[in-house]
Amino acid sequence: MKINDRKHLEIRLQNLIFTLLFLGVVGLLGWLSTRYSMQFDWTAGGRHTLSEASVKVLQLFQGPVKITAYARDDKVMREHISDQISRFSRHKTDLTLAFVNPDTQPDQVREQGIAERNEMRIEYGGRSEVVMEPTETAITNALQRLAHAKEQHIVFLEGHGERSPKGQANFDLGQFGEELLRKGINISMINLAITPDIPDNTDVLVLDGPRVNLLPGEVAKILEYVKRGGNLWWMADPGDMHGLVPLAGQLGLTLVTGVVVDASTQLLGINDPTFALVAEYPLDNPITQGFTAMTVFPTAAALEKTGESEFKHTPFLNTVRRSWTETGPIEDKIKFDADKGEREGPLHIGFALTREKKSTGNPPAQQRIVVIGDGDFLANAYLGNGGNLNMGLNIIHWLSQNDQFINIPAKTATDKTLDLSDMATVFIAVGFLFLLPLALFAGGAWVWFQRRGR
């Protein structure tokens, strides 16, 4: 086909128009990039994306949040801090970051009590929190502490072999206590045989599995605390109540004889049938609304309502249908036996109790109590199972009248470790140091001999 001058002109005009349109599109995209931003995080576990827990915490703040980072003129560290804070500021535009060089402004550093490099001070509503390291977990926990309108005081009963919120043994609650502290919740312990009364600033009194009987005078103090409208969390183990029968009567609850068992837990890799599983939760209960993670309760007792009570009883932890209360020894093969008075599931192992206090407030204040037939599910040995930790936090927030914090899960660091057995380590070492080089040498030698023989 012969191309004349007119065709040449049309082709040039088409090329010119295409170039102008292309440049216009590029310019438009460049302008849009200054007005809008879009990011994609394809890393494992979304390490560069703000977690749902952190986003929920940010939604609790109604005013500006100021963050001051005390970091030297280290480009790498300042970029790392800016990157961390930018993840928060994308969800809260009035969250600002400012840098202070401790070398050039030592007076301000001393005034603020900054002791370590790269510390950050978060300020909101006239209060502040110090963050020791620029990580999402540390920043989120500091923000959650600032979001509390007032200090929270959780008091644990001690002196009768109870699990300690500061203990590190497998049966203790040390890890749960540390998580409460990270959330800005104060914890303390009280021995009623020594301290005359339960402190007035107690938001929640926790009774977790006493192993010896409480004295009648101690029980009377607890009964009076409940009568006055105090919030209580009682975690009762199967068997003897150790002097707390009057408390059960006051609450209108009792422990069902036997231990809750579920022999089919072996399908989940649990060889102990005394582990009770809770997989479904009532949607109308504020503690479990939106909660989907399975919780595990080792050696639990079923609960049932008895007699009349001023409290409204709401079961919120129910075992699966295939469970039952085993009254015989847990050994060999076990099976449900109704003739022995055993109860078939689903069984209630957790109750939430409420009643309106005599108050002139509007709305009237509400007394809240939680009773669970197991004190082990928050122990150090079992805290990491399923949603146990987050369930414990939800209960504490509900009892302390902080419903806005419910279903803000604990932010945990991503596990980046690679655990290899000794055999796997040896295999990798021998393979990469010896077998792979020998294979490459053999392949090269074979190619050389093939070419030489041609």
Describe the structure.
The chain is of the alpha/beta class and 454 residues long. The protein has two domains: 52-145, Glutaredoxin (3-Layer(aba) Sandwich); 151-405, Rossmann fold. It has ten helices and 17 strands. The protein has helices spanning 5-35, 52-58, 75-89, 106-112, 136-147, 174-182, 216-227, 245-251, 388-399, 422-452; strands spanning 65-70, 95-100, 119-124, 127-131, 152-157, 185-190, 204-208, 232-235, 253-255, 259-261, 275-278, 295-298, 303-305, 312-318, 324-326, 348-356, 366-372. A hairpin with a 2-residue loop joins β3 (119-124) and β4 (127-131). α2 runs parallel beside α5.
The helicity comes to 25-40%
Largest β-sheet summary: 7 strands, mixed
Order of helices and strands: HHEHEHEEHEHEEHEHEEEEEEEEEHH
Number of domains: 2
Structural class: alpha/beta
Query: Assembly state here?
Result: single chain
For the residues shown, what is the average pLDDT?
Answer: 85
- For the record, give the distance between the C-alpha atoms at the N and C termini, rounded to a whole number: 50 Å
Number of strands: 17
CATH class of the largest domain: Alpha Beta
Kindly identify the CATH topology of the largest domain.
Rossmann fold
Query: What's the shape?
Result: extended
Q: Please compute the radius of gyration using only Cα atoms.
A: 31 Å
**Spatial ordering of strands, largest sheet:** 6-5-7-8-17-16-14
CATH architectural designation of the largest domain? 3-Layer(aba) Sandwich
What's the tally of helices? 10
Strand content: 15-25%
| Low-pLDDT segments, ≥5 res | none
